[in-house]
Amino acid sequence: MALTVVGSIAFDAVRTPFGERDRMLGGSAVHFALAASFFTEVNVVGPVGDEFGEAELEVLRSHGIETADVERIEGGETFFWRGHYDADLNVAHTDETRLGVFAEFDPKPTDRSRGAETLFLANIQPDLQRRVRALCEGARLAALDSMNLWIETERDSLRTAIAEVGCVILNDAELRMLTGEPNLLRAARAVMEMGPGIVVAKRGEYGSALFTPGAAYALPGFLLEDVRDPTGAGDSFAGGFLGYLDGCGAHRPDDATLHRAMAYGTVLASFNVEEFGTERIARLKVEEINERYAELRALTHFDAPG
Amino acid sequence: MALTVVGSIAFDAVRTPFGERDRMLGGSAVHFALAASFFTEVNVVGPVGDEFGEAELEVLRSHGIETADVERIEGGETFFWRGHYDADLNVAHTDETRLGVFAEFDPKPTDRSRGAETLFLANIQPDLQRRVRALCEGARLAALDSMNLWIETERDSLRTAIAEVGCVILNDAELRMLTGEPNLLRAARAVMEMGPGIVVAKRGEYGSALFTPGAAYALPGFLLEDVRDPTGAGDSFAGGFLGYLDGCGAHRPDDATLHRAMAYGTVLASFNVEEFGTERIARLKVEEINERYAELRALTHFDAPG
Q1: Which residues does chain B have within 8 Å of residue A293's beta carbon, measured at their own beta carbons?
Q2: Which of A223, A255, A259 to mutate to test the interface with B (most CBs of B within 10 A)?
Q3: For a disulfide at B76, which of A20, A62, A259, B101, Cβ 3.0-4.6 Å?
Q4: Mind spelling out the 3-state secondary structure of chain B?
Q5: Which residues of B touch A (CB under 8 A)?
Q6: Do A259 and B290 touch (CB under 8 A)?
Q7: What is the average pLDDT across A174-187?
Q8: How far apart are CA B79 and CA B100, in angstroms?
Q9: What is the DSSP letter of A202?
Q10: What is the ipTM score, two decimals?
């Protein structure tokens, strides 16, 4: 099994009440790929600039991630995001975004990336998501993320992109904005009417919810004593979720498999936020994932009436 | 087993995007008592005015709730709250509060109320909570709720009241405000250092979390298609939670019992919000509670790794 992700490969500058970093490896494709790499083979598709070095690539490669489609653009600048968080770590404040090489990105994925059974279209311009979707003919399960910017400025393109995937992964506020429906269950149904059979609502520290035509499901976030930087948590969640599904060959997953995938997504997101950027997940061990998965079961389990 | 609750018995005027009511039965003690009445014997302690009639008392009595300590004050006016909710039903906007008979309330509970094994001090002035706590000598498990007003204006009294109970049930924002600690787990620990061994964080539509000295626990809210009026959800949660504990004689509950109690609290809160005020819970059946408890288990259950 294999999974391809297209999205930003970035340098991030982040400040939170617990510290700051001037320039660290980030980007949605990076956070996603690292999380998914614990479960399956991952191909990353995206552009970087001249100054993106071997050290950054090595973080990916050391996790077995295929970087043949990390395209270095001569004279270009890597995508850059600067942001900060105040005491409420659920709210990211963007201070600066420089698209750099992403502004003119023309994806030309290798056959290997195009043949992967699972595809994640991280948060990029919806028409670009559609082009990659069309190129990746091997994908049996395709999912996309998006953001408020595209919901406001590219709503029609985004709706078309959504109709071409089987799974949508958005923040709950984005689901509400996209559909104009304040109720989450109704918002998820409205997205399903656009095409996808799986809708995931990310809810920050509160966890996540999942909707399929027949059922609804929800998990709280893992309760942590130390949360230092939430950047990339949503992409780590998606990486754990889709990585698990691809790793067990679930391209038309049943509900029980989706629920386990949600738990793995929750676990990966919880590690992500413990330290800055990719620092925690870069040194994560499979045994730690399995241990926290069991802890999450204990954290949410209750018995039938005694 | 028996449970005593002291708190507001009120008339509420509520407007939400789904309708409005000019004057309906409400108040923290009422919502709590109705929810708890499905699990155990309940005594309500609180004052009402002249205009509080037999029809309102009958809603309580028809659920087997003892109203001997619902004290009618001649010439007085029943506590009145007017508020509204916009599209974000997690945020209540208070438009008017008239304390009425509550301003001068001097509780004189009967021996029956004082002898109950479980006591809930709903959100009232902390010194009043302390007086009732001292009077109810039979209580082996005492819990309290509070609000931002008392945290701001009566912090020392509130901290003393907290030291005299075994369980605190607050919104997560209130826990953070009370302790000055943005992290929920750390905020809960700070409350435990004041005395209580059980801390419950209510998180609105996102569910709830529970902390004991050795463990943390969390449940999402029940996902509902129709949420019409969240007023009283927190008190219905507390009523299901403490009512269940008292009903099974758990006055020093172990973690597994607390987790089932959280699930019952979640279930009762979910029914509460489906209609205005007490309308839904007033006609609720035990079988519906049991059915939704099973649904909540399915909604949150995931398997060990396959």
Answers
A1: 305
A2: A223
A3: B101
A4: CEEEEECCCEEEEEEECCEEEEEEEECHHHHHHHHHCCCCEEEEEEEECCCCCHHHHHHHHCCCCECCCEEECCCCCCEEEEEECCCCCCCCEEEEEECHHHHHCCCCCCHHHHCCCEEEECCCCHHHHHHHHHHCCCCCEEEECCCHHHHHHCHHHHHHHHHCCCEEEEEHHHHHHHHCCCCHHHHHHHHHCCCCCEEEEECHHHCEEEEECCEEEEECCCCCCCCCCCCCHHHHHHHHHHHHHHHCCCCCCCHHHHHHHHHHHHHHHHHHCCCCCCHHHHCCCHHHHHHHHHHHHHHHCCCCCC
A5: 17, 87-89, 182-186, 203, 205-207, 209, 215-221, 223-227, 248, 256, 259-260, 262-263, 290, 293-294, 297-306
A6: no
A7: 96
A8: 5
A9: E
A10: 0.94
Q: Give the distance from residue A127's alpha carbon to the nearest chain B alpha carbon, in angstroms.
A: 31
User: pTM here?
Assistant: 0.96
B224·A185 Cβ contact <8 A: yes
Q: Sheet containing A10-16: give its strands across.
A: A19-26, A10-16, A79-84, A93-98
Mean pLDDT value across residues A81-105: 93
Residue carrying the six token digits 């948590």: A233
